[in-house]
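Design review, sub-item: ligand-bound model
Attendees: FS, YL, KQ
YL presented the inputs for the nicotinamide-adenine-dinucleotide complex:
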Amino acid sequence: MERFKDKVVIITGGSGSIGFTTAQRLASEGAKVLLVDIDEDALKDKQNKAEKDGYNMSYVAADVTKSEDVKKYVEVCLERYHKIDYFFNNAGIEGIVKPMQDYPEDEFDKVIAVNVRGVYLGMKYVIPKIEDGGSIVISSSVAGLQATPGMVAYIASKHAVIGIMRTAALELGERNIRVNTVNPGVVDNRMMRSLEEGLNPGNAEEVKDDFENQVPLGRYAEPKNISDMVTFLFSDDSKYCHGSTFIVDGGMQA
Ligand SMILES: NC(=O)c1ccc[n+]([C@@H]2O[C@H](COP(=O)([O-])OP(=O)(O)OC[C@H]3O[C@@H](n4cnc5c(N)ncnc54)[C@H](O)[C@@H]3O)[C@@H](O)[C@H]2O)c1
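KQ shared the predicted structure:
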């Protein structure tokens, strides 16, 4: 089924786990996808994979914290594909794990720069160009709805982007541009491996077991579970979903 035929989507963090899984899903349904990421090697790798699968996908290397780079990825998208229908504002970093009083200022600034400034800049430069009737999804997290000790920067950043989403929802409703967050719980990928190790160095497996015990479904999400939600939020099946948080956490918040 080509639900997204001729639709153009920008995905930041596009060579990462959730970003690329979403790119593959949208491209498999006919979308033209521009991957944006700071990791050029990973982008090349993903582009090769996409080519083999026959997907209409290309990339641009950009640092989402720099406005010149953000302007560039918007321009590249318009030059290559002539419009923007959907925006997955997804790039993010987890930072380190330390109690608040020991959390280094420069680490705090780094996480906020990518996860908040990067998301804000994406909105700032995509909004004037995205088609009326489009849809924007920002990656927040269950960390945007509840805290975990030791993760002050990440927790603050994922709460902050819900504020960005809500403000944008109020501003863009009149253009029928829908804006929502996806709020994953624990996803089985690199970011969680890093956090498991940070939360209890040398005992990552134990941390994973603990997390699994906190999930009523008893398991981590696969990246696909998150991209299924993002795809829904871009599709016509979510036409009245606007200004909301969409939790995909196996019941953790219950
Ligand atoms: N993995 C999880 O369990 C989980 C849970 C909840 C929310 N999230 C959120 O989902 C999003 C995607 O995470 P993921 O799990 O795919 O992690 P990931 O590390 O696989 O992907 C993140 C991508 O962002 C890119 N990136 C980092 N800094 C950047 C910058 N300055 N400019 C451009 N790109 C940059 C990275 O290179 C990477 O490819 C993030 O916002 C993350 O916080 C993840």
